[in-house]
Design brief:
266 residues, mainly alpha, transmembrane, TSUP/Inactive_protease-like, Probable membrane transporter protein, membrane, transmembrane helix
Length: 266
């Protein structure tokens, strides 16, 4: 089990670095990779991924705010975040509903993997072509909250915290550039993941999850956030976009493997 823990901690640390650089939280990497490792049940992976993402985003948002380097548009991002927090709770219930439809948790895992793969492909296509797409500037608080609600539902259901979906929404609906979108995305993820994690703590049987594992993942999330912020300061938006595109390709491949594994094809 020690080797499994080391592998899990390494995944969480490096995922949190990339998550902090790109503004995707890291859950979109942690979730499919831990699924592929198959060391824990799907619901446990969702919770562990959430703990890591929560710690990383909390550090990144607070550190940016304290340092005066924050690019968060609170007028836009706060209603988005509140909507995402409510959506996060709904998404948890939706996953529980889907999980209850099948005889084994593996089938629910296959549904998650397939949905995440489709969304990731859409995100990749948009990101490659975003310079050709006319964007909008949504300003209504009600519209922001509704958009956040949908983001929260999707992110919580997929167990990824927010990730690439947030960036596409911020690019298209709010005309944000890459680094600005990354910081606002982390702020939204912080709210949605906090609501989702609190819900899990209150409803899950945490006796099956090692305290040492939870603490280790939280530490990895914070350390990854520290490293990611440092890297982000030294690279431009174009390189962030390239990293993000490469990451999407990797995630698509991992999800193809996970679908095959959960459906018994491998």
């Amino acid at each position: 089990m020690t080797l499994v823990y080391i592998a899990v901690f390494a995944v969480c640390f490096f995922s949190s670095i990339i998550g902090a650089v790109c503004g995707i939280g890291g859950g979109v990497i942690i979730k499919p990779v831990l699924d592929a490792l198959g060391a824990f049940p799907v619901s446990t992976i969702n919770f562990l991924s959430g703990c890591t993402v929560l710690s990383m985003t909390a550090y990144s948002v607070l550190r940016s705010r304290i340092s005066g380097a924050s690019q968060i548009d609170f007028k836009t991002a706060t209603p988005l975040a509140i909507g995402a927090a409510i959506g996060g709770l709904v998404g948890k219930d939706l996953f529980s509903l889907v999980e209850g439809l099948f005889d084994t948790p593996n089938t629910a895992g296959a549904v998650q993997a397939a949905t995440l793969m489709v969304i990731t492909i859409g995100t990749l296509v948009y990101t490659i072509n975003k310079d050709k797409v006319a964007t909008k500037r949504v300003s209504s608080a009600v519209a922001c909250a509704l958009i956040g609600l949908i983001l929260g539902i999707m992110s919580s259901f997929l167990g990824i915290g927010g990730g690439p979906i947030n960036l596409v929404v911020l690019y298209y609906f709010f005309s944000m550039e890459t680094k600005e979108a990354a910081q606002n995305s982390l702020y939204i993820i912080l709210f949605s993941q906090a609501a989702s994690t609190i819900r899990s703590v209150l409803t899950m049987d945490l006796a099956q999850v090692s305290v040492a594992l939870i603490i280790g993942m939280v530490v990895c999330g914070i350390c990854g956030g520290i490293a990611g912020r440092s890297i982000n300061k030294h690279i431009d938006s174009e390189r962030v976009d390239k990293l993000f595109i490469g990451l999407m390709v990797v995630i698509i491949c991992i999800n193809i493997y996970n679908i095959a594994k959960y459906t018994g094809l491998v």
